[in-house]
Design goal:
The structure is a homodimer. Chain A has 16 helices and 19 strands. By secondary structure, chain A is α/β, with parallel strands linked by helices. Chain A folds into two domains: 9-133 and 322-447, nicotinate phosphoribosyltransferase (Alpha-Beta Barrel), CATH 3.20.140.10; 137-313, Alpha-Beta Barrel (TIM Barrel), CATH 3.20.20.70. In chain A, helix 3 (62-70) runs antiparallel to helix 4. The longest helix of chain A is centred in the N-terminal third of the chain and has 24 residues, at 120-143. At the A-B interface, helix 1, helix 3, helix 6, helix 7 and helix 8 of A face helix 1, helix 3, helix 6, helix 7 and helix 8 of B.
Chain lengths: 448, 448
């Protein structure tokens, strides 16, 4: 998709006004989430790789400019400016996979005001989708307690892009693979799948369908056993399992997709074990999410692996992040950066150029974050790294595998309560003395 | 985005098994929604245009086949089959903008089983996003009682595609425009916008920012008045309104984005009118949805137009449809179509090739729908039309404007209770005698 026009119209009208009145002004914007969605104690950053690609390649094509000209609102001069447009600013960002909290800038743009404004919509859009899905997937993976989780969301994600990017984001957050073949091709996410009810129904009976599948993929067969009657389906799967064994193969698994998954999985485990098929895995699907998985495991369901679709891929209980892009400083006539803030009711912002510091305790666990002014002398590890300098990429994105490994380790460096899926834990994010002082003084000055 | 691999892996594994065992089998699949989401009494179909484009252009590229080959699971023969793949079946569908209900097929595929299976994921994915957003937008438009509604969702939709397709779907369902410039370019949806808080904050004070904007766009100025203090912001807007009038222009509007929108809009209306600026419109934004709009209008808020973002573009209270793609008939060894159904608990389906009939009463209003077998002699208007015949397009999609006009009229042909936004109305969808009989007989036969 051509991305230069993937922006809100007002970015361009404001840009033309800046072009006339604020041509040489620079500004800093913070991209952050105003509040955590329901059930969430933390979020997982994703989307930076696409954001960097967008910023690097952002150009308005002749076609784009032709469309804009037809709006009869943009000046010749401004359209000429757009024809040479290139992002030349600085970007600081948390790496993909980093854990972050409300009010913490995950990305900071310092650039000419026109450039900084024009990239707003695409940055928000990209970050919103990928971090939303990564954050949801991390919860599902934690709930599965080490059992593999697969992303099966494609059919109900918000379009093709959401399916592909969602598969990548889920994998980044710890999922073990996806059903989305295009995500496999584009991002080397392992692809996986079983069979559909329609496959079973296409044959004269269930056993015949199982047989056909097993003969096609003797090393890769997972049989869906609930099309007609689950208990009978398990028996048919056992028949196939024994047949495969005779031929020197192994039935990989069965899939349960409806009914009482806890009870049926126990039934299946007993039957499979009795038949000498203890190695056959039990996969569960069917409107699963982290809450249902937790309950299934509390009931000691004999499930080895979970396929999670819609609820993960649409982040169904929080289908967006309250992500915003807010001005925090702007240059005056002497090109000096002046901190600014918004005073709108319940939507005030933190002024100035900021950094997030993460403080580790003696046991090695993270204790708290501190939102501070960039220059402040505060302990802890700064989370925002410079990734683009004057438009030039100075950051090498780690591989998706590396990011995934980082997430796996990093999550467990937080107090364990953070991983509770009901979102009861309140990880402390302190405001530094310097930032508090600046905010207070500035809001006083503005109100007077 | 290259769409051929936008499918679930299991479509391809099943396809290879069909290729070996069911090469000459044909089948019919229904695409339908199992149940209506919360608050919804009806849904609005969208996505057919993209589905037709997908089916027409569906080819596996060399690159795609190379990726599949690397999976070491597909046979040479099957990959060769894929290299010549083309959808050659029939499609029946409801036109875009049609109102539909639970269990009604909105699209029916009859094709070779491999072709019918391979297109599943993309059909579901496309239909889900666009119908979900169109259905939500129709509700918002109805709640606004004739006042224009604009789509401002781009920054929080699930990625770029969801932003663009969502803008089109909202417009189709009656919205008056979008902030998404790319949707404007691609679909000629009118684009619109105001200004951001950051714009106001970039200038020395609010008045100066308003002045700059009004001088840039004297005919197109909408001023955001809540950055610091809304009452003062309205006064500043009045100053600009009078100034513009002096120069022979008109201030187009002001925008309220926070606080008590009902009270503030009344305050703004009084102030503007007193200043002789009765023609200046009041726009409201800020986390709006159909419920908030209804309440604002009940309080007689003086709002002329609504900008609706996240809640509409993500269909936040129902961020997916329970849309499925189910086998309803399959050919036997004599190429005769045999109706089939699924018996899984709480997920049984309707067998056979079906049509949906909409019955109109004497007053011209729709009374009920009837889900029937295709051949049945039932009154009412058949809603499924043949759009693709043996792979050939035989349907000309109407223009987006025409579809939008159709939605506007069509919604009001239903009993008025249907448009209640709390979803209290239960529009009757009857099952025809023939279909009921078939289902009963088939399920009896299967259980025995």
């Amino acid at each position: 998709m051509d991305n230069a026009l993937l922006l809100d119209f007002y970015e361009l009208t404001m840009a033309q006004s800046y072009f006339l009145y604020k041509r040489n002004t620079s500004a800093t914007f913070d991209l952050f989430v105003r509040g955590l969605p329901p059930n969430r104690s933390y979020l997982v950053a994703a989307g930076l790789e696409d954001i960097l690609g967008y910023l690097r390649n952002l150009r308005f094509s002749k076609d784009d400019l032709g469309y804009l000209k037809k709006q009869k609102i943009f000046s010749q001069d401004f359209l000429k400016y757009l024809s040479n447009f290139k992002f030349r600013g600085d970007i600081w960002a948390m790496p993909e996979g980093e854990v972050f909290f409300a009010n913490e800038p995950v990305l900071r743009v310092t650039a000419n005001i026109i450039e900084a404004q024009i990239v707003e919509s695409c940055l928000l859009n990209t970050f919103n989708l990928q971090s939303m899905v990564a954050s949801k997937a991390a919860r599902v993976v934690v709930a599965a307690q080490g059992r593999p989780v697969y992303d099966f969301a494609l059919r109900r994600t918000h379009g093709a892009g959401a399916g592909v990017k969602g598969a990548r984001s889920s994998y980044l957050a710890g999922a073990s693979g996806t059903s989305c073949v295009l995500a496999g091709k584009l991002y080397s996410v392992p692809i996986t799948g079983t069979m559909a009810h329609s496959f079973v129904m296409t044959f004269k009976n269930e056993l015949e369908s199982f047989l056909a599948y097993a003969e096609t993929f003797p090393q890769k067969t997972i049989l869906l056993v609930d099309t007609y009657n689950t208990a009978a389906g398990i028996e048919n799967a056992i028949t196939i399992g024994l047949l495969l064994r005779e031929k020197g193969f192994k039935l990989q698994g069965i899939r349960l997709d409806s009914g009482d998954l806890a009870a049926l999985s126990k039934l299946a485990r007993v039957k499979l074990n009795r038949a000498g098929l203890a190695e056959v895995k039990i996969y569960a699907t069917g409107n699963l999410d982290e809450f249902k998985i937790k309950k299934l495991l509390e009931k000691e369901a004999c499930i080895d692996s979970f396929g999670v679709g819609t609820n993960m891929g649409t982040s169904i209980d929080a289908p967006c992040l309250d992500v915003v892009y807010k001005l925090s400083e702007v240059t005056d006539e002497n090109s000096k950066f002046i901190p600014v803030m918004k005073l709108s009711k319940a939507k005030t912002t933190f002024p100035g150029r900021k950094q997030v510091f993460r403080v580790r305790g003696k046991q090695g666990k993270f204790l708290r974050d501190i939102l501070a002014l960039e220059g402040e002398n505060i302990g802890g590890k700064p989370l925002l790294k410079k990734v683009i300098s004057c438009g030039r990429m100075i950051y090498h994105s780690p591989s998706l595998e590396k990011t995934r490994d980082f997430v796996k380790e990093n999550l467990f460096r937080f107090p364990s309560g953070l991983l509770d899926i009901y979102g009861t834990y309140n990880y402390p994010v302190a405001i530094s003395p310097g930032l508090r002082r600046l905010k207070l003084n500035l809001s006083r000055a503005m109100r007077s």
